[in-house]
Amino acid sequence: MNQSDSERVKRVLEGMGAQWTDSEEEANIIGILACSVRQKAIDKVYTKIGKWNKRKASHNLITFISGCVLPADKEKFLKLFDIVFAMRELPQFPQMLSQYGITTPAGLERDNLNPKEEISFFWKVKPKYNSSFEAFIPIQNGCDKFCSFCAVPYTRGREVSRPSNEIVDEVKSLVEKGYKSITLLGQNVNSYGLDKKGNEITFSELLDQIGQIGESTSNQFWVYFTSPHPRDMGREVVEVIAKYKCLAKQIHLPIQSGDDKVLIKMNRKHSVKKYRETITAIKELIPEATLFTDIIVGFTGETDEQFENTRKVMKEFKYNMAYIAMYSKRPGAASYSWPDDIDIKVKKERLALLTKDLAAESGAYNSNMIDRVFPLLVRDTDKKQGFLSGQTEGKITVRFASEDHSLIGQIVNVKITSSTNFSVEGELVSSEVEVVG
Questions:
Q1: 185-198 per-residue burial string, b: 16 or more CB within 10 A, e: under 16
Q2: What is the C-alpha separation between 272 and 320, in angstroms, rounded?
Q3: pLDDT at 174
Q4: How far apart are CA 287 and CA 47, in angstroms?
Q5: pLDDT at 311
Q6: Other CB atoms closer than 10 Å to residue 10's CB: what's the count?
Q7: Cα 404–Cα 405–Cα 407 angle in degrees, nearest 5
Q8: Mean pLDDT, to the nearest integer, of 111-130?
Q9: Are 326 and 348 in contact (CB under 8 A)?
Q10: Picking from 15-24, 211-220, 296-305, 400-409, which range would have the lowest pLDDT averaged per residue?
Q11: Cα Rg for the chain, rounded, in angstroms?
Q12: What is the C-alpha separation between 387 and 3, in angstroms, rounded?
């Protein structure tokens, strides 16, 4: 989401005549798109602004911050940054900058708008894509779930769906330009349209329309989405993904815990049984799909038995990747007032055990890839000299020997030759070879 937001911020600034620089030292306007999911990220913000404010004594510099910012942090940032604004207020950014002596004929007067109106203007800002082959499309903003560990509803606000015609038009435009990877973004993508019942299509219907775009073109591309919530992830979504070739066979479905009592305390509004039903549908309808998840260890009151239940679901669902985090309290979240009663040593032990379990499942999948050919979107040079790196449709990272940088941004066929628990290596093969998928 930060990457997608940054593309729109860059478009607004360049529309004012500003030019991008990769050097902080050269910048006259510099800002941060914050993420309040973890305290560590916010701590880095304070470090940066302290450094920038010292530069102001000898350098003409305007600072700003936006993104996900909690009200308590916003109060502090108002004293440190020149401009603090919600991302939905981006169309008003030139107007804000004009107050610091910058002429902004493109300034938009959008006074007295409510958040839903503001976000609609934000979505109309055409992004300045950072890549020529990968793009992110926001389809929904905010969250109504109020998980007890999460601050997003307090930083992004309530759920608002973007008009589906705008989303479909953006997808069409990107496909026509040859983009290969498109990710639909939202805090809860599969609750898309629920805030506009009767006036907007559902998430599965949106995917169906995008799938039809894939059917009508010879351009090869993959469409992903993140993040879905298990409560709203119905079988109809899985059926649509199975139906269309362009809808990537990769599902990121956060479980957070494998214990029902912990899930209730987290206010996740789904059970392990409900989650299992969705996974069963995925395995049945798209058995080739890779599965990613998010997990928190050491949540308030988590017992050894409850943690073992999480280890069980890791082994049962055989995740290809899991983003595992040790619980930390976030101001603004409901659990902030609860005791953080799991010792850091125990949290680290649980993180290590779960990572070991993940490695076993991921390693087994990767070893089964050997001697098979997969289409691969080449993304960049690899840290290994003379190699390029890319991802399969299932977002498994693969490197292969090649110094042909013209392949970056293209989909090529690679035969897998070796693997480890978290890495795969292959060799470039002829496009005539039959590939998986």
A1: bbbbbbbbbbbeee
A2: 19
A3: 97
A4: 46
A5: 98
A6: 16
A7: 80
A8: 71
A9: yes
A10: 15-24
A11: 23
A12: 26
- Residue 237 amino acid letter: V
Tokens describing residue 377: 């979107």
Residue type, 375: P
Domains of the chain with bracketed CATH = 2-113 (3.40.50), 283-367 (3.30.750.200), 373-428 (2.40.50)
In this predicted model, what pLDDT tens digit does every residue of 41-98 receive, in sequence order? 888 999 999 999 998 878 888 899 998 888 778 888 888 998 888 888 888 888 787 6
Number of H helices, E strands in the chain: 13, 16
Q: How far is CA 324 from CA 138, 265, 356, 377, in A?
A: 25, 18, 11, 26
Examine the pLDDT at 107 and tell me if it is beyond 50.
Answer: no
Phi and psi torsions of 387, nearest 5° = -120, 150
Any bridge partners for residue 291, and if so which?
A: 251
**CB distance 435 to 374 below 8 Å:** yes
**CA 383 – CA 401 distance, rounded (Å):** 12
pTM of the complete model: 0.80
Q: Which two tokens stand for residue 413?
A: 């066929």
Read off the pLDDT band of 432 (50, 70, 90): very low
Phi/psi class of residue 251: alpha, beta or left (left: φ > 0; alpha: ψ in -120 to 50)? Answer: beta
Q: Are the CB atoms for 12 and 94 separated by under 8 Å? A: yes
